[in-house]
Amino acid sequence: MLLIKKRALEDKSIYINEFVDFDSKWLDRARKEFEDCRQNGIILNSSFDDCTWILTNEHKYTRLNFVFPQTLFQEQISKKRRSLSMSFEEFNNAVKAFIIFKIHYNTQNKLKALLLFLIKVVENTDYFHPKKASDWLDGYRKKERDSSMRQINDFLGFIDFLPISDIHVMKVQAQEDFESMKESYYMVQKGNSLNRRQLGEFQSYFYFDKLFKQFWFHIATESEKLYYYPLFLWWELTNILPLRPTEFTLIPYNCLIPNSEGGYKLTIRRTTLKGINKKFVFHKIDEDYELFDYPIPFHIANYIKDYQEKTKKFGDSVFLMNYECFLSFLPPFSQLTLKAKRGQLLAPFSISTLDTILMHFYKDILQGKFNLEIVSKESNKENRLLTNELKDNEEEHFIKPTQIMKINLGDTRHFALINMALSDVNPILIKDFTGHSDINMSYHYFGHIDKIVKCISYNKFKELRQTIIDEGKISTLRPVTLNSIKSILNKDNERYRVVDLGKCFSPKFYEGDITHCVEADNGDCFNCKFIELSDKESKEILENRKMVLEKEIKDDGIYFFNMITKYKGYLNEEAELNRSFLKLQQSTNEYLNLEQK
Predict the structure, then answer these.
(1) Same domain, yes or no, for 265 and 145?
(2) Cα distance between residue 335 and residue 372, in whole Å
(3) Cα distance between residue 54 and residue 45, in whole Å
(4) What distance in Å separates the CA atoms of residue 121 and residue 82, rounded to the nearest whole number?
(5) Residue that finishes a domain, picked among 171, 194, 217
(6) What is the CA radius of gyration of the chain?
(7) 224 and 162: one domain?
(8) What is the pLDDT, as a whole number, of residue 465?
(9) Quick one: which of 78, 304, 374, 540 is 20 to 30 A from 360 by CA?
């Protein structure tokens, strides 16, 4: 028996649950569902019986290949003497029916992943042979780090749907193990999320921003700007609005709305298929995405208008990103191939198009013009910067000035959400953009906030250090530290008083006025901008305080995101949400102040 969701015919906003039994009517039901999807343009095939189905959601194609081993199936009957209660054709049709019944539960990527998972299970268990199935489950539990709980859950629904007589052995064991596997899986996911990103990644983020702006405003030719403009808009826009890559590629062409104050709002599409607001999957852009308007800085609006002007010659476009402009940079044969492959799509400019441009930027610009070494997150496992876990006695380090890690298209959403949390953005708006109900996403997005703050302070130090060196105020023959820089900056103010932690250059404190002391958390010299630490003991205390703050920032970030996830709009919840928001900002500001000591 299989549970499916259907839209009510009399009211399209209402969804009802139905059960489908494996009886004489299930195949007719599946074929009717297939035909409905074909009529709606979701499936491009003409026949349910095709071995390969081609699906589309108007901005990409997905191929589903139903390639189950027929010889293996026949061996189970002839050699293993199993009574499978169905023919191979019936089994294949059962899989197709299962997929078609799930088509409005899942995105097309998830449907493909589910089908590949079913094929893998069949091949590894000899069509759910009791002994093979037991061995496979035992091995699978040891690999739950790589598993998908959604696929496992759907798989349980699939084997419950099949009438194979001896499949109950696997069914019982799988159901008994499912809860323990799920608990273990989420514990592992939590650990993975906390360890996933390292300092080198965040440093590369700031470095990428600096180099991109240097290239764009000082080096790029008009031809290069035309090719890299989608990437430039992606970088500028998704760093302030945490859009998913697909949401960015689906920004409508007429997206700028002037306001009465001379500024602009930007119309964007946001998916309805994520988190607690997940709806029925239509596989249509207008129904799976909703339009929202957000104010944007004036300079970004000008970039968009400039891009629209430059791409007019390539013809009209429904979406902001112009696919014909991208094609114009390719050889004629490649243009013809891509037009034939994606020409029927409503939105041909996809994530893969944007990723191609990003790859060329790393290869031709960062590597070719800036002579940087592109460091992969997945390769070079001996480099401790790239590993997911550090040993207890190891410490993370920043990458070399000649290196940069590759940024993925989805990374800017991660950084934009953290940046919103560290700024004065309304926490309710941050919640609106997160759109996730899974508590583990808090670790994914905010479990590294301490490292972002550390990189911010590190980059501020580098800029200050270079300014001091350029002005010839300090010798580069000795180490340049924050304290030595502070000593140079304080040379113009010789008047100070000696205090327990070093020298206080507060002009008010020198005259006997303790106003600055009160402002610095009632006499806490660590939080005072006028202190210059002078002895080793004070510096050790400072480093210990910074370590404590790093943990506080990470914990405060995770707690803040948890509050966002749970927020329902009640008065007491809003007060706690604002409190956690302010606490996160307070910890961050204290850390940045300490880094200036």
Answers:
(1) no
(2) 31
(3) 6
(4) 18
(5) 194
(6) 29
(7) no
(8) 43
(9) 304
Number of domains into which the chain is organized: 3
Residues in CB range of 397: below 8 A, 6 or more apart: 199, 200, 384, 385
Domain identity same for 399 and 514: no
pTM here?
Answer: 0.72
Same domain, 177 and 219: no
> Pick from 547, 560, 17, 77: which is nearest to 280 by CA?
17
The reply to whether 460 falls in a domain is no
Handedness of CA 207, 436, 569, 579 (dihedral sign): negative
Strands 373-375 and 403-405: parallel
Contact 120, 131 (CB under 8 A): no
- Domain coverage including residue 391: 196-409
Q: What is the pLDDT of residue 285?
A: 94
For residues 67 and 36, give the distance between their C-alpha atoms in angstroms, rounded to a whole number: 24
- Nearest Cα neighbor of 213 from 197, 195, 201, 225 is 225
> For the packed helices 411-422 and 199-214, what is the interaxial angle rounded to 10 degrees?
100
Q: Measured between alpha carbons, how far is 353 from 62 in angstroms, rounded to an integer?
A: 16
Q: Which amino acid is at 114?
A: L
| pLDDT digits 0-9 by tens, 489-509 | 554 556 888 887 778 888 888
Q: Do residues 108 and 60 make contact, with C-beta atoms less than 8 angstroms apart? A: yes
**pLDDT mean by block of 10 residues, the chain; 597 residues:** 51 55 77 94 95 94 95 86 84 92 89 92 87 76 56 75 70 61 52 49 82 94 97 93 92 94 91 70 92 92 97 94 94 83 82 93 94 72 38 54 86 78 65 56 53 55 45 42 50 70 82 81 70 65 70 69 59 64 67 59
Specify whether the CB–CB gap between 247 and 272 falls below 8 A: no
373: which 2 tokens?
A: 């070494």
Which one-letter DSSP state was computed for residue 85? S
Q: How far apart are CA 293 and CA 6, in angstroms?
A: 31
**Distance in angstroms (rounded) separating the CA atoms of residues 99 and 95:** 6
> How many Å apart are CA 491 and CA 494, to the nearest integer?
6
Q: Clarify whether residues 402 and 541 are in a common domain.
A: no
Query: What Å distances lie between residue 152 and 113, 155, 185, 281, 594, CA to CA?
Result: 11, 5, 11, 20, 48
**C-alpha span between 376 and 367 (Å, rounded):** 13
Each as own residue / partner, the long-range contacts of residues 373-378 (CB below 8 Å, 24 or more positions apart, any chain) are 373/400, 373/402, 373/403, 373/404, 374/403, 374/404, 374/405, 374/406, 375/200, 375/204, 375/399, 375/403, 375/404, 375/405, 375/406, 376/405, 376/406, 377/201, 377/405, 377/406
- Contact between residue 5 and residue 280 where contact means Cβ atoms under 8 Å apart: yes
Token look-up 């909703």 returns 290
Rounded Cα distance, 445 and 441, in Å: 6
Contact 266, 299 (CB under 8 A): no
What single letter denotes the amino acid at residue 376? S
Q: Which of 461, 441, 379 is nearest to 565 (CA)?
A: 441
